[in-house]
């Protein structure tokens, strides 16, 4: 518990990225989950609806440190992420995909939060020659160094589902993966595309069950979801 934090009957979840695809599914699950009495959202825009459990903080996530006093809860769910197509500037890309999750983990640690969950990506590797994979890998290492007791890093493959913005390349890849999934079996199953609600559900399960894993690969995310939902 952080200094000045009052523990009520039930849990408080902090969510970053609730306006995104996976974050939206996660938010709906948390609102329906009776274990949670408050959901604190930190985002640059409103989700557009109200709920008795909801507490929205419309902030610049790149300056999250300035909102430490409000960053209080039991668990942090970080669903922040962008793409090269959406954020072509390399410096800004790293500020989002690396900077925001790491800032959230640091603040969470300072405020005594015990559980931190973040969506990374398959292939994340701090030594990779691919900038996307390298930044994700660097983010994972920095988050783990923050030392939050229960830290879970989810490494999904290509995420399915329909986004509001049109990404023709991503759409075509998803159609291809729907067919390819049928033959990706055994050791290759980790390369199957994965649905956003599966990731969201697994995040909620991990937050409430100490699995003992730091990094959870895509096929493991799928298995956890299928076993518990």
From TrEMBL:
It comes from the Bacteria. Keywords: Membrane, Transmembrane, Transmembrane helix. The keyword RNA-binding does not apply. The chain crosses the membrane at residues 12-31. InterPro entries: NAD(P)-bd_dom_sf. The keyword Transmembrane helix applies. This is NAD(P)H-binding. It comes from Arenibacter palladensis.
């Amino acid at each position: 518990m952080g200094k000045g934090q009052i523990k009520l009957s039930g849990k408080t979840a902090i969510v970053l990225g609730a306006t995104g695809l996976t974050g939206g599914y996660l938010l709906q699950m948390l609102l329906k989950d009776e274990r949670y009495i408050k959901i604190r959202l930190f985002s640059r825009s409103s989700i557009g609806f109200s709920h008795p459990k909801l507490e929205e903080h419309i902030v610049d996530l790149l300056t999250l440190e300035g909102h430490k006093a409000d960053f209080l809860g039991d668990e942090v769910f970080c669903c922040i992420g962008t793409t090269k197509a959406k954020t072509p500037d390399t410096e800004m890309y790293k500020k989002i995909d690396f900077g925001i999750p790491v800032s959230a983990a640091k603040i969470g640690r300072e405020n005594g939060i015990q559980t931190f969950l973040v969506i990374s990506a398959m292939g994340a590797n701090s030594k990779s020659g691919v900038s996307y994979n390298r930044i994700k890998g660097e983010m994972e290492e920095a988050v783990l160094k923050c030392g939050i007791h229960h830290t879970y890093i989810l490494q999904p493959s290509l995420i399915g589902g329909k986004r509001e913005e049109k990404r023709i390349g991503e759409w075509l890849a998803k159609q291809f993966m729907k067919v390819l999934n049928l033959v990706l079996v055994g050791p290759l199953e980790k390369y199957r595309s994965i649905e956003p609600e599966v990731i969201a559900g697994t995040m909620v399960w991990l937050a409430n069950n100490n699995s003992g894993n730091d990094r959870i690969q895509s096929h493991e995310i799928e298995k956890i979801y299928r076993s518990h939902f």
